[in-house]
Amino acid sequence: MGQLEGKTAVVTGGGAGIGLAAARRLAAEGAHVFITGRREAELEKAVIAIGDATAVPGDVSVASDVDRLYERVRERGRGLDVVFANAGVNPLATLAELTEEVHDKIFDINVKGTFFTVQKALPLLNDGASVVLTGSTAGEGGAAGMSAYGASKAAVRAYARAWASELGGRGIRVNVVSPGPVKTPLWDSAFGEQAEEMLATVAAGLPRQRVGDPEEIAAAVAFLASPESSFVYGANLYVDGGMNQI
Q: 67-76: long-range contacts (C-beta < 8 A, 24 or more apart)?
């Protein structure tokens, strides 16, 4: 028996990277997992990898797509116990390079998408449910080319604090998991041909001199989703190899 046996979970951005690893871990703990993302073929492959899962393609920044996701959850008839609002993008651009289109894309998916994901889940959330938001070390850092991304993740951190206060009366916990450098498709898309070089450079500055695995972030998500974190509200759990801690 896993810690989430019989529970229902939603993972956005669940087709690859941290989202896929988290969906697999939540399913391994006994949950039926609904995953969503913009790439349907990727989601179909993810369902096979996860096992007990349902794919609902969609864009979290589009309200009607999120409504469609939760209609599928509603049809299951068991409410909702875990929400992992994970979908995000990170196109790199300095202040001089940042366009309105790129800025809006980052905030639409990372911030508005997180807002839609949690607000529209409210009618389904069971008492004692857990909401986990994906933050980032960039939310408190100042890396060149990541100003819009970092600002979006700082907004996510602010959401978690306020929502934990608002929903705590029902025992609904809202927390943030903030990954450091992790080898994922998001990292590859952000850094392109320099991705491997950047990973090596960053890893050299960490205590273990390696970057993280998606499964290590998934373990932290599983902890925050489980009864083991029953007295954790509004926290930001860094899983960053010490990047923001040392």
A: 67/120, 69/10, 69/34, 69/36, 70/10, 70/120, 70/121, 70/123, 70/124, 72/34, 73/8, 73/10, 73/34, 73/124, 74/124, 76/8, 76/32
Which amino acid is present at 54?
T
Question: Rounded to the nearest 5°, which phi and psi values hold at 34?
Answer: -95, 125
Residue 82 β-bridge partners: 9, 130
pLDDT tens-digit series, residues 194-239: 888 888 999 999 999 999 999 999 999 999 999 999 999 999 999 9
Dihedrals phi, psi of 236, to nearest 5 degrees: -120, 105
Among residues 149, 159, 233, 238, the one annotated as catalytic is 149
What span, in angstroms and rounded, lies between the C-alpha atoms of 210 and 191?
A: 17
* Domains contained in the chain, CATH given: 8-238 (3.40.50.720)
233 is catalytic: no
Q: List C-alpha distances in Å: 112 to 42, 60, 83, 98, 158.
A: 23, 8, 16, 19, 13
Contacts 24+ apart (CB under 8 A), 161-164: 161/234, 163/118, 163/131, 164/233, 164/234
DSSP state of 62: S
Please state the φ and ψ torsions of residue 168, each to the nearest 5 degrees: -60, -25
